[in-house]
Amino acid sequence: MDLRSGAAFWPINSGLLTTYPALTQDESADVLVIGAGITGALLTERLSRQGLNVVTLDRRDVARGSTSASTALLQYEIDTHLTDLRGMVGRPNADRAYLLCLEAIDSLEQLSRDVGEGEYFRRKQSLYYASSRRDLAPLREEYQARRTLGITLDFLGAGELHERFGLRQPAALLSRHAAEVDPYRLAHALLKRAAAAGARIYDRTAVTTWHEDSQGFVVRTERGPSVRAKWLVLAGGYESLNVLQDLLPHLLPSRPLAMLRNSYALVSEPLELPPFLATTLVWETSRPYLYLRTTADNRLMVGGEDDAHANVARREKMLPRKRRILEQKVGKLFGQLSLETAYSWAGTFGETPDGLGYIGAHPRLSKHLLFAMGYGGNGITYSQIAADLLSAHIQGQPSADAQVFAFDR
Fold first, then answer.
1. What's the mean pLDDT in 107-129?
2. What whole-number distance in Å separates Cα of residue 234 and Cα of residue 308?
């Protein structure tokens, strides 16, 4: 699957940071990770640091799939309101999901510092504004629900919102706990550290088939060589959904796990930004929602205008139109802000019914076949959670939190 269209900002900004060879001879490992984007990188680094023998494969160059298309807003806030999520998965699991995302931001900050990418991790606050007056009551309920978890946030009425942020919207929630990161650089740094700990990383190596026997998995690649491993972890992002559909062809059509959608994004030329944007991520209650962040060199990064994924050709055809709509929405939101787009792109992502990803083994498949499917708007925080949960599971110390993201939740 071609996961993005257009000119994604991160690889252009940072260039080719590290090169890895293709697999040219047979390998063996305790764990084989398929996927070397941010999810696979987090897993590879964690498992190798714990002393496991790890091989990681990617069919592309490292971090050139969904990771390069991510806008990398790090938030504890899930696309599904806490008030709604409690009704979908039960209050204990919903509350735990929000708190795990909160904790993941702290973990990502420490990890970024540990691998030398601390300057590219920036703490922010998150401003979640009501798109219309009909969203006021649900926003107040959400405010109260989060406060029951001990989350620090403010409810801003229209007057205070305009006074502090210059936005003419009905209300907003201001959360203290958020961040932004360069996902492309972070993935490369994690893999570099993993390689120093003994992990073997191969890109431009596509997997063709695999089978499981009494000793584990044998995975064959397009170039010929194979990898034998006790554990197989699929961290291939939204392509993992296709794998599941192939493995469970009669089950998933009646109970779809996720819908593939496109999200569109742009990055401006450097410009003079409203001062609050230097410290604040911005998004809205409307679905699909507009979302904004900045870069270190004063560019505005804007995303949204999600639509259903049909095929790559349609996504590429829609990109110019979606870019213009995003530019118009930013102009409406900020009035006189003059924005000149430097780069624009579209990426395909998975959206689940409850907004939570899937992490762990599927109950109808091998217990040694693990999935790290960080679907929804919290992809990178879910990836950090996946590194926590799957590494504990492989080490024989499963966590009670695994049920929050289980396939049969």
1. 97
2. 24
Give the range among 122-136, 169-183, 202-216, 241-255 with minimum mean pLDDT.
241-255
Taking the C-alpha atoms of residue 83 and residue 236, their distance in angstroms, rounded to an integer, is: 31
DSSP 23: P
- Which residue did the predictor score with more confidence, 21 or 338? 21
User: What does the DSSP assignment read for 286-333?
Assistant: SSS--EEEE-TTS-EEEEEEEEE---HHHHHHHHHHHHHHHHHHHHHH
Structure letter (DSSP) for residue 120: G
Q: Which domains does the chain possess? A: 4-69+184-256+355-405 (3.50.50.60), 122-180+259-351 (3.30.9.10)
Paired tokens of 366: 């091998």
Q: What is the mean pLDDT of residues 108-132?
A: 97
Q: What is the pLDDT of residue 318?
A: 97
Q: In sequence order, which residues have a C-beta less than 8 Å from that of residue 221 and are 6 or more positions away?
A: 23, 57, 205, 206, 207, 208, 227
Question: Full-prediction pTM beyond 0.90?
Answer: yes
In angstroms, the CA 295 to CA 277 distance is 10
Residue written as tokens 């764990």? 31
| Residue 171 main-chain phi, psi, to 5 deg | -175, 175
Question: Does residue 256 surpass a pLDDT of 80?
Answer: no
**CA-CA distance, 407 to 307, in Å (whole number)?**
25
Q: What is the DSSP string of 337-395?
A: ----EEEEEEEEEEE-TTS--EEEE-TTS-TTEEEEE--STTHHHHHHHHHHHHHHHHT
Parallel/antiparallel/unpaired status of strands 122-129 and 153-157: unpaired
